Every structure is written in C-alpha cells, then in structure tokens.
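INFO batch 0412 | record 1 of 1 | parsing
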Amino acid sequence: MSIRELRRALAGAALVLPVIGGFLQLGGYVGLAHATPLLSKDAAKQGPFAANRTAARALTRDTGADRAPTVGETYPHGRTQSPLTTAVAARLRAIAARGERNPHVFSKVGASATVNRNYLRCFAGDDVDLAGRGHLRATLEHFRAGQPNPFLRRSEAATVGWHAGRAVWGRHPPLNLEVRHADPRFAVVMYGTNDIELGRPEQYAELMLRLTHMLERRGVVPILSTIMPRDDDPDADEVVSLYNAIVRGIAQLRRLPMIDYHRELARLPDHGLASDRLHPNVHFVDGDPRGCDFSELGLTHGYNLRNLITLEALDRARRVLLEGEGPLDAPAAAPSGRGTFADPIQAQLPFAHASDTRRAAQDAVDEYRGCDADQDESGPEVVYRVHLDEPAEITAMVVTEGAVDVDLHVMHAVDGAPACEARADGMLTVDLDAGDHWFVVDTFVSQGGVDQDGTEHAGEFLFVAARTDRPSDPTPPAQ
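INFO prediction complete | emitting tokens
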C-alpha cells in the first residue's frame, strides 16, 4: 500500500489522544459532499461569493473583534532561522525559569539522520572550518565545554528508525531519560521522516506537541527542524510539505526557534542527499568525512549544511537566553485578513496559523447542511481563503488542546452561494478544482440538558493546510 493509500485509509478513523494538560481531538477524512448551499440563496448571495461587499459585511454577525488574532508568532517562508523576536526571547526565558539546566549542554532528539556520526560530532574535533564565520567560535567553544560533551554524547532520545512517538511513549519515555541524564538547556529536534510511513499526520502533530510540552515543562528549550525531502519515494515526498507545515505551526504556536532545513536542502544538488535519496550526504576529503567543512564546496552536502545551521540556531539561542542579548529580529507581519467571509485570512500553501475563536471577528454560520452535518456550529468561526491555480489534493487539519472543540469545513461557490464541500472534526483530504476555496474553522456547541443552554467550546487552535499531490510545475512558489 502506498503512502497516499495508507493516509486515505487511516484518515477515516477518529482519534482522541492525550496531551499534557488535556486531550487533543482529531477527526478523520470526510469525502466530498453534495454541494448544497448552507444558507438560503438570498442570504448566501450577501456572503463572500457576491460582488456586493457592503452586503457581505451586513451578513456577518460581527463579534466586536477587529480581526481574528494570531496566537504565537508568524514565521515567514524564505528564511532558514525563524525570527527571534522580543516575544520569542521572553518565551525562552520563561521556559528556562522552569528548571536549572546545564547551559553548556544540548540534546539531540530524532532518528537516523540525527544518530549518524556525521551529525555534529565533528565539532568535537580539530577538523572544523568555519570559513570566515568567526562569530560562531564563541558558541562552538561554549558547548565544547559541556560535560557530557553534547557533540559526542549518544542521545537516549535518538535512535535509527524512530518516529516521534518512540521518544515520548512508555512508563519511562526515552525523552525524559535523556533530559534526566544529560541535563540539557536546549534540545535540537527533528522527527517526521519515519512518521510519514505511518500515514497519520494528525498523530504526528499530537506527538510533536506532546514532545515540546515535555521538554518545556523540564526547563529545556526545544529547537525544532523541518525534515528532508523524500526523494526515495514520490508518494512520501508529496506529504513532506504537510509535515513541515505542522512543524512550523507548532513552533509558531509555542514561540519556539525553528530551523528550515528543507528550505536549504532544496537548493543543493540532489537535495544534499546520499545515494539512498533519503539521508543527507557528507563532504569527503582524501577519503575521510569532513562534516564541519563549511567552505562553498562543503556546503553543497546535506550534513555539512545541517551542522552549520544547527550551530547557527544554537548560537542565536545562546546569545539571547544565556548572554542576555536583545531580540535579534523584528516580528513578521501576520497573515492579512480579518478571518471573516468578507475579509478572509489569505492562506498561501503550505500554510500554518494559530488563532482563537473566542476572539474571532465573525459569528455567522450555525450549521453546514451541504455536508449532511447536523452539528451545532453556532459559535464564532475563523475563515481562510485558499486560491488554487490548478486542481489539487489538499490536506488540512485543526489541532486543539483541552476542552476546545472546533471543526473544519471546506466551502466553495455554487451559483453565487456558499456550499459546503467537506467537513471533519480535525483533518480532511479533499480534491479541489482550480479557483477559490474557503476553509472555515467553526466552534462546536454541545447540547446541555433540559432547559439548559449549550456549551460553546471556543478557544485556541492550530490550522495547517498543504498540497499533498504533485503539482504540474514542481517549482515551489516564492514566499
């Protein structure tokens, strides 16, 4: 069974998984429904599909909020190191305040690409060529002083073949053992390559959230990384952008540093991958690996590149958290749009955004009859717009924690009226035509007892969407 077939087959099962502080609820795939308008046509024509924007604003039951809020940070595409803003710096200090840790130690958390001897170990030796990057020397020496030496130490939370669950499951999770024995202040985390084989991106989101919670509670600052291309398997590679969007979304939501390793690999010959087209390659000199050669030639290799950008991420975090430097970057602009039908948030795929329906600017739709759904969605909603230049398979999800319960709906225009194409409690995969589509995250209201009002389960959520088939033009859009 291919990755795509497995993902489609598994997506039908609802999933309720525990997380720190509550439960994360994710649903399954719901196929295309009859395109029945969810409102009467007279009312619907006043919505986002009509030319009359004044009427569209009249339809919206405004909640009084200026716009749907962005929870956490916005990490723009087009840069390798996520912005280390005033808010992110404060977040790192808050995490560090939860526990005393060895400031000279970091942990490596991941699978085979992390276990490999070409990842970071060369920093403990003499064959390090910073190639003019002398500003990184202080950070290199800082962590060389760690006991145990973090460059050399074999992590208990990094093993060949692992997916994220292997680090956090069990009575004594390996991640907790690693923190207990290494006493790290930081943890460099990269899971996802093996998680793809499970075909459950919603489970991956839950596990990565759990992993970051576990580290943060123990005073360890997670530094998350996107994963490599899957040139070994075209079906697997189609969903890499979704898994990387999940990583970006969690980093934004939790205000954690993120390294976009995938972005850097995309520029390299053969994506910086070895002959297996799965793991990074390394630069050799006279038959010996030189993973810390950061010359122009060295940086055409995957491990050399990862070693450099990992050191850069550690340098940025060390300077702000341990040396007390001010913020290194200005905050990026939040996505445009109020999150209403008249002014939806513009989502360019792959996309990740955290918001909060308690502060949404719109409360206009109570039910989605076009999807044969009778759930009470009378709470506030946040609306996203996705434009497709060609037909595409799109996978989208909402991730929540605790008592928050929001549902995901996909809408498009039928004769000028909004119609519901698909809905899910958490994740859906749909085949969409070229044009505009609206993804609506709406608040579920559970029914109370006799003579009791329903309970509105509004709150924070993470919305993630990505194309999960191969575009006719594989060149990624400029972002």
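INFO post-check: Confidence is low (pLDDT under 50) at residues 12-59.
INFO record closed
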